[in-house]
Structure formats: structure tokens, C-alpha cells
User: Fold these one by one.
Assistant:
Number 1:
Amino acid sequence: MKLKSIVRIAVLALPLMFSSCGIFKKSKEVKPIIEQRQTTDFVSQVRDNQQTNKFITSKVKFSVEVGPQKITLTGNLKMRRDDVIRLQLMAFGFVEAGRLEFTKDYVLIMDRINKQYLKAPYRQVDFLRNSGLNFSAIQALFWNELFKPNQGSEAVVLAKNNKEGEGKFTTIESGDDMIINLEEGKMDYSWLASKNTALIRMANILYKDRFNGNTQLNWDYSEYDVFGRKMFPKKHLITLTTPDKEVKLGMTLNYLGNDTEWDARTEVSNKYREVTVDEILRRFMAL
């Protein structure tokens, strides 16, 4: 496959993985937990597993699948808590083909090969705004954490007297796991966590649209390793399903570290042409 074709698939597919939203198929063994205190205690255990490191960096092996098209790339992941998440896609192992950067204020998508970029605040990207995926929520997905929509992982603090209802976490027991659920309007957020370790094994977000069809995002975590005195997943499998397409992204993290010597912001050269969100979406739907 030509380099431009690789970039076209990967650079368009990656940012849209974080746009929408998944739901569990609950087994017949599911039993509701009545005591809200049990929900509070378990959610607190899950939250206690959060990373204490401020930086996470890693070499990454990417696999991107859009319909019948499959590609494999290498790259880098660089994250600084509460500041930036950066994914760099490398072609042939040494040429940076694309870059995806999330900050608190904007999303930046760069196509290095075709000299194009998109830089937009979250409120201008409909699918991010509608699904409650601002920077804090996206950070929680990358860092394997619970979050509250439009807030983030720091908002996951439950009082002992919280009552169930909209905007509150609930739990359901399912075999060896617990399903943590949060509903807000058209959105349904769910996490699957081990009862024994309280480690999150899956995050699911569902955007319900009875007119245009549902959109869902499944984010699976596996192959945990000790990092910064906490467990962190080295393998991430992300599946975005829209009424028209399914996109799969696999990320395998190698050589986890906490490198601090890198610039936290990408400067865009005046040689790059700015494109719109609509243009990116049109090109993606044409894949």
C-alpha cells in the first residue's frame, strides 16, 4: 500500500475513534446491587487504581482497520496529565506521517505527508461535544480511569449519601466483574471492572439516536503491567461503530516510561493548509 494511502486511512480514522460512543450485552447472571454504599465503595476502589505518575510515554504499535482495509504502523504516545495527549504515527518506522494532539483547549490533527491540519476547540466538533468527550474524558480513556462526562476522572468522588438516578454511578454484578453505569440524557456510559482487582477492563459509551441510529465506542484494556506502583494496561483495543461504518484501532504499548523532555505543544508551520471538520468527515466516510 502506498504511503499516501496509509496516511489517508490512519490520519482520518484515529481522531474519529474518540468521537462517539458502546454498550455491554448483559448476561443472564446479572444481579442488581441495591445498596448504594456498595456502589460507592467499589467505585472508590476503582478510582484508587489511578496512575500517580504525571507523565506516561511509550513506543506504540498501531493497527487500523476500516472495513476491508487493514494497516499496521508504529509510533509514539506522549501524555502529561491534565495538559496534553499526543499520538505520533510513523511510516516505515522513521517518517512521521501524522500527529493527533489533544489539549484542554483544542484538538489538533496533522497530515504530515499532504501538509494539512485541523485545529479546533471541542465545542466545534459535534461528535465530541454531544458525547461529553472533552479533554478530561479523553484523558480518562487513555489513562484507564473512570470519568464523568464534560468533567473527567477528578469528578469521580461519591458521597456516602448519594442516591441513584441521572448523573449518579450505579453498579451491576456480572460473574467475576462489576458493570459501572452512568446515564446522562442520550448518553450511556459503562465500565467493566474486575471484582477482585477493581481494574477497568472495558469502557463503553453509547450515543442514542432513534432517528439516525446509535453510535458506540468500545475501549478494551488488557495485558496489565506495574508502572509507577500501579497497574497499567499495555494493550488497548478500540472499536467505533456508527450506523454506516466500523473502525478498529489497536494500540500495543512497548517500553512504558515517564520521559519529561519533550515539547508539550506542536507548532504548525505556515506551509500547512488548514482543513475543516466537515472536510475530514467527508474524506473519512469515503474510505
Number 2:
Amino acid sequence: MELRKLLEMDKFDNECKKENKIECKKIREYRSTEYDVERNEHIETGEYCSSYPIVLKSDGTVWDKASLYIDFLRSDRNRSSALLRTAGNDLLDFLRFMEANNLNMLHLPIKKAQRVTFRYRHDLLEREKEFKLNGHKKIGRNTISQRINRIVDFYEFCIENKIFTFTELDNRPYTLLKKRIYFEDEKGFTQKKVVRSSDLSIPRAPRAIQTSDSIKDGRKLHPLTEQEQSIFISYLKASNNRVLQLICLIALTTGARIQSICTLRVNDIKNMMISKKVKGSFKKIEIGGGESIDNKNDKKYIIFFHTELLEMLNNYINSEEWKERSTQSYYKNKNNYVFLTKFGEPFYTSRKELEDRKNRL
């Protein structure tokens, strides 16, 4: 990783600032480099990351161990920008806990309950129960389970890569365990598998029970009633943000996810405009499965657009507002995203853009 990029503070965006503490930041359009000793310069490796998180200590310096771990997730495990951001926030939370309690990663006294890892676990559980006076927000069970597992993986990375060794560990930060879990496969048969765990592990919240008025899709979702839709549309009409209006109208009328809506391209609209109608006044388009429009887990799917909505979208991509935004963006007027911020940035970076940027290097 090129340290020079980590220290170019003008490229950082504030993630959040609370109580004057410098917190998680990110580098936009990060490109990995390697140092060429013979040429005495940094060479780009061709690896691209749309948003790269940096964990800063309260004094404003980079937490080097966190940076090494995050780069390991990016390069060795090929994790997405979204997951890197989550990992950065998890490590930041652990760092802030240590700073608040004047601890470090090697604070591992004989008494297990006093070790930094177990104290952090206890703090997470307490924060789940109530609001803390120091400004921490209440967090859910799945989040604290994720965070403590992240810290175990972080320690494992540090030990494996000899960032610190077992000789520096007065006592174990945790004990690794093997657990058997049982689950039902697609055919309804009970299966068993062995997973790695630790004595720090916090069980996740039980899955929500499927009900007749909800959809189980990662979380329990309730479709809007007709009355709720009417109220929502009235607020949309009152808004002067055309991008917000169109994004919400697509979501309401097609059921598409925000990921799919925000990776919609200009050519997708143009092609639908000249395609044949299906199901009366609708036109269809395929998403996911290698198409230009992304979908969750890249699952192939078909969504249907009403012709009136397509007319609205076609008018927007021919408007002065869209043209002005596109001139500031990566694709300019070459099959750009339908929806861009006023600075010309996409609301969601598509898989295709990541590939295009890699091929450009």
C-alpha cells in the first residue's frame, strides 16, 4: 500500500465527527500501488477501489494495524468497498473503546474479564441495552456480533503476519473454538457443519418469523399500504429534487432495489423506449447475471417499467441538469448512469464501472 496516498488528507472525506473527535475517513477512487526499488517510484498494480476507508486515531494519525488489515481484506480476500467500509467502522469502534479506557491491544492481564477483548465484549453488550452517556448510539445484536467477530479476525491477522507475536501476548486475547451448527438445506433435510468460533462470540439475533404481511429478505420488510403510498407520493410531489422523485417512483412502481435503480444506464432507457411493449403499457429489462444493471448477489431478474415512467426518465436524461452532472462524471456522455449527484458521482458504483476502470489502467 502506498503510504503517500494515506496521508494526502485533502483526498479524505469526513465520515463523521462527534465531540470533536477525528473519525472514519475514506479515499475516493483508490488505486493500489507497489514500490519499484529499481525505478525508485510507485507503480499502480491495476487494482481499483471506489471508496477506501482509513481509520484515524483521536490525534489524527493513521492506525497502521487497521490499514494493513483493511488492505489485506481488499487484496487477499477481494472484499467490496462496502464491506471494507463496514470493517473500517468495526475497527474504529474498537479503537475508540481502547482510547476511552486508556487500553491497547496487548492489555491482556491474567484475569480474563480484565483483558481488552473481553472488556470490549462487555461494553458492546452494555451498549445494546442502553444509551451510553458518552454519545454512543444503541446498536443491535447482529451488529455487536459482527464487531466482536471482526476483532477476533483482526487479531488472527496480526498474529499470522507477525505484527505482534505470541511472545508479546501475556495471555490469550480469546480462545478459538469449533462449533457444530445445524440447518435445513433447500430440500428440507437437516444438515450439520463445523464452524470456527471463539469464547468472545456473541450469538446473533434469531431470524424473524415469516408473517403474511411481511417479506423476509435479509430483514423483515413490510410493503407499503395504499394509504402509505399515497402519503409518500404527496411528499414526493412537494419535493423539488427531481432525482429523488424519479428514484422513488421507480422503486414504487417496479419493486427494484436501490442498487439496481442507481446502476441504471442511459442506454437502458433508450433501448426500452424503442422496444416492444409487454403486459399492456409496460416494457421489460433484465438485471443482474452479468447485465449492466446490478442486482443483489448478481441474481438475474426482470423488471417492468411503465411507458409513462420511461417518458419521465427519457426527459430527464435529455435535461440540462443531467447534462451538467454528466460532464463532471467518469463516463461523461458515454452511456452514463441515469442518476448522478450534483458533483457528477454515481450514487452506487456498478460492477461494470469497476471493470472499466481496471481495464483503463
Number 3:
Amino acid sequence: MPGLTRRSVLFAVPAAAAAIASPALISRATASTPHQSPIDIHRHGAVVSPHLPALHVHYPHSLDLEIRYESKDQSQPDGCEHRTAEETVLAEIPEGAAWVTLAGVRYNLANFHFHTRSEHRLDGHQFPLEQHWVHLGPNGEKLVIGQFIKTGGHGGTLQDQALATVPEECAEDVHLHAANLAAALPSDLSTFRYDGSLTTSPYSEPVSWLVLNHVREIKASSLAHFQSRFPDGDSRPLQALNGRTVKYRPQH
């Protein structure tokens, strides 16, 4: 696809394309691709599947990152002041620096970003925040780990560090030194798994979703700083399950 960067393939269409895409076109695209994300995950409705392959995480203990505001309308006259649900704060990961394996297949971590409030729900509950860890397989397959986040922590996590330093739209990137990605995911890697889509345009399918059952806790001030950038939120509404089966893979 000419003009698409590695980031735009994984995360969204380029800003210029997003600016000219009509709501009618997006609506038709969604209607023709019924396995969309996010969804409401119900614990009692998930099929317990211990036979599914285990998730193996290979994230570094120290990695320098650049945290940036992912703007979709920077070229518009009021783009630096106007917030849209397509925008977020994102850290792009150097290729090959971090990865997961599933059934022997390696998926390189491409970026992580945040949505407020959470896009997925758990038994109808919407969390204050959700983090997405976006991975790319050897043939372009997309695998995203979703992580619910709530307040109650004491700080010091990667999430706290990233959220407390998010830049303004159109501002310079923020450098995060020696970020500990290895500690950013829990030791309990039990996940709800289903086939879905990206949650930003073009909402492309398929995406293999692994949503962690464990909820990360952060400081209230970290959440407040991120939400100050997105007072109206940056999450997509729930999508219909449309006959899909959600499976639960325990991995304590």
C-alpha cells in the first residue's frame, strides 16, 4: 500500500487519508466487516480453553523510548487544539527490540498506546483506561494485547511514567529513559481471546486480541494527566459480538 508506514499499517490510516475519509465510507466498511472491536467480555460466557498455546513475553528491562501525541488533524487550522477519538499517546518500539511468541510464532512489538475510557469492557464494567500492545507477525498478522488499567497504585510502573509525561498535541516528543517493559505486563498472563479488528480507522480485520484478565493499578495523578489531554475520551464504542466465541486461557 503506497504511502503507508509501518506505524500506519498497525495503528491507523495516515492522517491525510483519515482527514478525507467520509463517515459514509467508514460506516459501509464497518458494516461489511462484522468482526469488529472492542467488545464487552463476559467471564461466564467465555469458553475456558487451557489447551490454547501459552503466551510468552520477551520484553527488555531497559529501553529508551519516545512518547508522542499521535495527532490525526495536525494539518487543519485548529488541529493542534481539537481532540478526536482517533488520537492517542503512543510509543513506537524499535523493530526487534521486544516481542511475544504464540504457538512458536514470533510477533514483534510495534507500539503501545492508551485509550480512555477503556474500549473493551469486562462483565459490562468500563475501566478508566486501557493500554494496547500492538504486535506484528512475520506475514503482517496483527496481535494486540489489551490491558485494563485503574487507579490505586503507588507509581513507578512503565504506565505511570508514560502517562505522567504525555506531551501536548503538536508538542515535541518526550524521551523516556531506560523504560522497563519487562515489568509492564503481569506475571499472570491469563487472557480472553477472540478475533476482532483495529479500533481506529480503517478498522481492518483480522486482529488476534488477547485481553488480560489482570488489571494494572496506577497513581490517580498519572491517569488525571493523560485524561487532561483527552477530556472527551479517545475510545471507540462497543461493537456487536456477531456470533463470535470468546475463549479464556488461564496462565497463572
Number 4:
Amino acid sequence: MDRRSLPPLVFLIISTFPLYASAFKCGSSPVKCQALIDHITPESTTFVEVQTLFAVRNLRTLLGANNLPRSSPPDQKLPAKQTLKIPFPCLCHRGAGISNKRPVYTVKEGDDGLKEIAERVFSGAVTDGAIAAANGISVKDPVKVGQNLSITLPCSCDDVEGMKVVHYGHLAESWSSLEAIADRYGVSVPILMEVNGLKDGSSIRGGQLIDVPIRACNSSIRSDSIDSQLLVANGTYVFTAHNCVQCKCDSANNGRYSASRRELDHRTGRLALRCNVAKGTMPYY
């Protein structure tokens, strides 16, 4: 069923639901970037299951976003209620930002409607209204086992006060405050309030999705390179150059973009490709 086949009343219901769990702002011109968003595991799981849920292309990308050891095994057990940062591609268009064509969630036995999927499976980082709008259905429509649902995660690609940043959708804890979030991620309270359209810093609630613009290292690699426009959020690392070079952005390293060799591949037990790369530098913004 698509929107064209829906009666006017149902279309009105879909259109009036908020599209995103939080009003992430984006410029009007089409732009693509990498973003981060929180995921709170609803039950015991593994890295590879989280990777599959969000269609993260490789495990190292997920590990790097959380600054975890790259030797962490895919089947490592994760407890319920553990928070992980999920890296995903963001598309900004017409003032709104959403995840670019993924993830796609397949309804499972026991899933009880869009609201339950939004709140339990995706930690409330996306609303049932957003899922309904992305799939041309009503929030009240029943879901069927095996049904595929496009999930539109909110995001942004905008610079903040002229700085290159990676926008991170942070799910606020019940005890948290803007001051605590600002201190934890090195952002000022006024910037958090402006980016999130907040007038009162004390008004955030537990589970609210806060857009945290994390300072990032950016590259000056040639525009025809596959790694052009690479951004690495402070406190994270990525693998680049065909997965040969590990690059980490760290404020303790004066914002320099450091490169190190790949070591032993934990999955095969064999030596993987070694890339002897001299340490390069990237400005810290």
C-alpha cells in the first residue's frame, strides 16, 4: 500500500505524526555524510547481531565508532541495556536529515506493532510515525512476520559555527542534563540548545534524543580519492584506504590524524595485509 491509495483521513493521520524522534536540522542542499546514533540493546545480543540490525557494512566500523578494541570478536556477548553508538550514512535534503536507504528491519515473531518496534528494537531513537511515513502505512496498521520496514534514523550533516562535526544522536539518561552532556562530549551548552532548538536547558527528559555535534578531524585528501571528505569524530577511529589504515581522531593527540598498521586478523588467525604508513596529520576542528 502506498500513500496514493490511502483515503484522505488516513493520509492526514500519517502526515501529522512527527517524522523524526528529534528535530535534527539540515541545510536545504542535498548532502551526504556519516552520522552516529545511540542504540540501547533491549536484550542480550552480540556485536554481529547489532551490526546486522543496522546494516553496518563491517564490524570494524561499529567497533571504531565506540573506540573498542579492533580485536573484539563478532560473537562477543553484550548484555541487555548496553549503549552503543551506531555509525550510519546520513542524507540531508530539503531541511531534514535521515539515514540513507538503511536500515531495513524485518518484522519478527512477537513484534507488536510499529510503536513497540520503535521503542523496544530501536530504543525510541525513531518514532512509530516516522516508520509509518517512510513505509506509506498508518501507525495503527498491523505488522506481519517477514514484513520489511524502512527505518529512517534522524541525522544532520551541517557544520556548527564553522566547525566540521559529526552529529551524534544521544539518548539522554533520566538523570542527565545539558550541562552533563556538554561536559562529556566537549560541546558548549549554548550550542546544544541552539542545535536542538531548546529554550530551557533543564527541560530535557530521559530517552530524549539530543543532537550532539562532536568535533571531528577531517582530511585534505584529493577529491578523486575514495576517502575524500573523510570525517572522524573525536574519540573514535575508522579504517580507510581499502581497510588498510587505521585512523583515529583524539583530542589528547592534539587533533592529529594518526595512522597505524593492521595487525593480526582475529577471524582467520592469519596475518592480514600490512600497510606501512607514516603518521600523517589532520587539523583538529
